[in-house]
Please model this.
Amino acid sequence: MSENTGILKASDTKLKIIKEASALFCELGYKGASVRKIASKVGIRESALYNHFKNKEEIFLEVASGIFSNPFSFDADEIKENALRGKPFLNKFAMQYKLLTFDKNNESMFRLLLIELLQNKELREKFTEEFHNKNIKMLSEGFFIMMQNGLIRSADPMIISYEFLSTLFYIRLQVTLMRFDALSTNSLATQFEKHVDFFWDSIKI
Model:
């Protein structure tokens, strides 16, 4: 077996571990989804799983990073290019966020993560870094560029970013709570677009 083939197989196995672990976490909760059960679902020995992750918490944190990840990631040039378009930059961000919110495959895991955030310091730190800090940084850079180019009024770009992101997160939380009570979320389907419209009208020049 070539080295490249070995790398690909290892990568495939790791992805399968993440997929099966996510399903088990949703079904059994964090405590109920043991490493032994995850390995059995993947079809490998428990000892082989440790070639990819050092423990169950590391697997859980990997799954969590997928749920709480940035709606999209841009480098500096891409942020500038998109921010210069103004409102479409916010639309794109909000629509990616909406896709994450209404993805039913993520729903159970999102609920579990909300619980685990209160109990797991490392997860809280990862959430803060991967979801909060990176999103705020990217949005702040975008808003600053808009200010420099006379698209929006001058203000603290970080505060504006908090204002924009917090409503999106609240809508996502609201969707989760309504689904938990088996209520229809149809009324929230257009809230992301309405938020962008309202927000843009409040900051544009």
